[in-house]
Amino acid sequence: MRYFTIEEFTRSDTASKRKINNTPDVHSKRNIVSTIDYLLDPIRKQYGKPIKITSGYRCKSLNTAVGGASNSSHMYGLAADIKPSNGDMATLQAKVLEWAKTHLYDQIIIEQPDNKGIASWLHVGWRRGSDRSQRRQVLIATKVNGKWQYKVFSS
Ligand SMILES: [Zn+2]
């Protein structure tokens, strides 16, 4: 835990507005630490500039409130949605895809890309268990008629 805190991983405007208690339990807290140690910190280090977490841990009611997938790894503290603080997503995305070639992760998702393929935000996910359980999938997600559709990304 170098560049990120549990606080910024659990903070949520939607939770505050709707008075949802988004405090992680001890298991989720442990997962949050793994997600930061294995994904967010190394990505932040390679990118070299500030990154903000737009959505990290989501308790069940928060996940429902934001329209997350019913089995979302956000509910276990094992995923984070990120954006570059300076708004330059093209550069962050390129760095993350480069990082992905040589590191372990479960999923990286390019969410709601524009017509140039640049994400609206990036989802990074970790899986509990051994190194082998990491699937190293890079996907593109688009919402069509209110439903998320996923495609495998190929560079
Ligand atoms: Zn996500």
Would you write up a description of this structure?
With 155 residues, the chain is α+β, with helices and mostly antiparallel strands. The chain has one domain (6-152): 2-Layer Sandwich (Muramoyl-pentapeptide Carboxypeptidase, domain 2), CATH 3.30.1380.10. Helix content is 32%, strand content 23%. The chain is built from five helices and six strands; from the N terminus they run H-H-H-E-H-E-H-E-E-E-E. The protein has helices at 6-10, 13-17, 26-47, 60-65, 89-100, and strands spanning 51-55, 79-84, 107-111, 121-125, 137-144, 147-152. It has a six-stranded mixed sheet with strand order 1-2-4-3-5-6. The longest helix is centred in the N-terminal third of the chain and has 22 residues, at 26-47. The chain starts with 5 loop residues before the first helix and ends with a strand. 34% of the residues are buried. The mean pLDDT is 96. Zinc ion binds next to strand 2.
Largest sheet: 6 strands, mixed
* Small-molecule binders: zinc ion
How many H/I helical runs?
5
Beta content: 15-25%
Question: What is the CATH-assigned architecture?
Answer: 2-Layer Sandwich
According to CATH, the fold-level topology is Muramoyl-pentapeptide Carboxypeptidase, domain 2
Number of domains: 1
User: Widest sheet: strand order?
Assistant: 1-2-4-3-5-6
Radius of gyration equals 15 Å
Order of helices and strands: HHHEHEHEEEE
CATH class: Alpha Beta
Helix content: 25-40%
Unreliable stretches covering 5 or more consecutive residues: none
